[in-house]
Amino acid sequence: MRDLVKRFPVRGGLLRRELAAIRAVDGVSLDVAEGETLALVGESGSGKSTTARLVLRLLAPTSGSVRFGGEDVLAAGRGDLRRLRRSMGVVFQDPYASLDPRMTVGAIVAEPLAVHRVGGAGAAGRRARREQALDRLALVGLAPEHGDRYPHEFSGGQRQRIAIARALALEPRLVVLDEPVSALDSSIQAQVLHLLADLRERMGLSYLLIAHDLAVVRQAADRIAVMYLGRLVETAPAEALYRRPRHPYTVALLSAVPLPDPAHERSRAPTVLAGEPPNPVSPPAGCPFHPRCPRAQERCSVERPPLAPLEDGHLAACHFPHE
Amino acid sequence: MSSGAPPLLEVHDLRVRFDVEDGVVRALDGVSFSVEAGETLALVGESGAGKTVAGLSLLGLVPPPGRIDGGRILLRGRDLVPLDERRLRRVRGAAIAMVFQDPLAALNPVLTIGDQIGEALRLHLGLSRPERRARAAALLTEVGIGGGARRLRDYPHQLSGGERQRAMIAMALSCRPALLVADEPTSALDPTVQAAVIELMQRLQRELGTGILLISHDLGAVARMADRVAVVYAGRIVEEGPAEAVFARPRHPYTWGLLDSAPRLDAPRGRRLPAIPGSPPSLRAVPAGCPFHPRCRSRRPVCEASRPELRPVGPAQRAACVLDADEAAVERRAPAAEPAR
After folding, report:
1. Whose C-alpha in A197, A277, B84, B107 is 20 to 30 A from the C-alpha of B299?
2. Are the C-beta atoms of residues B71 and B81 closer than 8 Å to each other?
3. Per the CB < 8 Å rule, is B258 touching A242?
4. Helical spans, DSSP H, in A204-290
5. Is B258 within 8 Å of chain A by CB?
């Protein structure tokens, strides 16, 4: 991804004129390497889900480019786009909303195969697709007889397995995981995270993981990109980010997450950020984080810090990353 | 805490059932707990365990076809279970208030924030209109919604997610209730907003001496807020005790399963978390014997036959498990078998 920008117009008045624009994604450049899990982290309104939709070309960016295996996704014609889409899968947050309740699980997993006419026409094609769908169900730990049942017969964790099987139906190289475990019960989250890690290894997948839970991200990601108000404020290898976060927003985000340890929680005062994320229609001048930043100085309110390299693949958009 | 005076809230052997077409769902199957003034008790568990029903039953709000079919709910010694709707309404809001996970569902979208807070003040405290306005404005300031009186004219959709949760807390605390039931109060909020809302509830608790019944699946939030913890599984409490003891020395395999399988910020990366196998049971078909036994890595033959009762396992700590302290320590350290694939 290079310099991705997505503006959503805010319209109003009698003539529905464009009054302003929300820069939901504002100049985001990122790479996902082969076999890597890159996590995009941020709070609601940070632009992380919009970024994922731009990558999948479910939304068209206002400007910028997305390349997949060297090919320009945004310039691709219909035929090329179909081919590129086969290489990308997606798993959404809510396994209750993302599976069609009137289709059997087998048909749900086979649907992408049918759309792409895998196996050809006629009965032979249907049989081949059904075989492949059952194979995908086995991959996620479900039995062949599960293929004849309907989504409501499954628990949340099993439904997310079905959604993963569907995402893998076409043997993608990249899977976008949009909050894949946040709707699941805590005792189920670890199961699904394990499954995703196993599948990545066995199938050589790359993941773009969209998540707000920093503990989940720590478990799953190789590299992490933190977004605030549509911009990247820090990117780093996972270990480095948790060991030494450089952007004050990342510091606050990490400090806000309580540990399941009452003794520890009682002995510390979490950093409570002043205010709430500002309105994305009129982001603050200079560094967008400066009104809430404990490090902010004069310079931060006028000059926007670029995302600059610090060391070992660690980048931060802060004028004072060493404090 | 004066000895002799009844505790703020005492729940004895509470049973709630839902008679549905194809059977009976025992959402709460004999649950007992208490909350003292100024104290926070957390009910911890997964969705469908019955913890939300526990909160609703305190306010007489169990939705039909659910009903309380046994037990007592003593608020300062007075049983709420036999009260009719009119008497319950006087308790609700004034003595017990509730904060929900989703403020948009709990706030009325066509009334302003000021009207909604004012309604509670009129009903329970009988304040005049100007008194209500002044009090409501002060409450908004108290919960950290900037702009004071001007914001009373806002509708719920004009507030941010964090502000709505703050407004609901303001409403809940408007009549200075003795007990606050907070059902997943921060689960829908972003992490930095979550921290601020927890901080707010704790400050108000300190200032007003409110007892809090926190209902949550988020072990981090529970660790930050709770004095005592009760772990709910399949409609029953399986372990309870002081938060520090339960988190440090859990004695029920479900409790340590939850603790050990939760991703945490300070854990070494790349280590496989020991997941609890299977899913929580449906309350229509709770397994016989110990309800957790089909998912338990430490089960003994006896666990399939008889249901263990809660028994003392440490100072003020109780667990419904047959394992003794040494067995529990060994079982928790035992490497989890790789799940069959």
Report:
1. A197
2. yes
3. no
4. 214-220, 238-243, 248-256, 262-266
5. yes
Tell which residue, B315, B228, B332, has the closest CA to residue B274: B332
Task: Read off the pLDDT of residues B5-42 as tens digits, 9 standing for 90 and up.
Answer: 789 999 999 999 998 887 888 999 999 999 999 999 99
Q: Which stretch of DSSP H or E encloses residue A310?
A: strand A308-311
Give me the residues of B, 35-64, that contact A with CB < 8 A: 46-47
Residues A185, B47: C-beta atoms closer than 8 Å: yes
* Residues of chain B with C-beta less than 8 angstroms from the C-beta of A198: 341
What tokens does A190 get? Answer: 């670890």
A vs B: CB pairs below 8 A: 143
pLDDT tens readout for residues B201-228? 898 899 989 999 999 988 999 999 999 9
In degrees to the nearest 10, what's the CA dihedral of A178, A180, A182, A185? 160
Q: Do B275 and A194 touch (CB under 8 A)?
A: yes
pTM: 0.86
Question: A261 contacts in B (CB within 8 Å)?
Answer: 223, 247
Q: What single-letter amino acid sits at B209?
A: G
Looking at the complex, report in whole angstroms how far the Cα of residue A33 sits from the nearest Cα belonging to chain B.
19
* Residue A91 CB partners (closer than 8 Å, separation 6+): A160, A163, A164, A167, A175, A176, A177, A178, A180
Token pair of B37, please? 């003034």
Give the HSE-up count for residue A95: Cα atoms under 13 Å, Cβ half-sphere: 30
Q: Comparing C-alpha atoms, which of A211, A216, A227 is closest to residue A316?
A: A227
Residue matched to tokens 């046994």: B70
B220 chain-A contacts, CB cut-off 8 A: 215, 257-260, 265
What is the distance in angstroms between the Cα of A121 and the nearest Cα belonging to chain B? Answer: 33
Instruction: Compute, in degrees rounded to 10, the torsion defined by CA atoms B215, B49, B46, B162.
Output: -30
Instruction: Give the model confidence (pLDDT) of B145-199 as tens digits.
Output: 877 678 889 998 888 777 888 888 888 888 889 999 999 888 777 788 788 888 8
Please indicate whether, in this complex, the C-beta atoms of A189 and B199 are within 8 angstroms of each other.
no
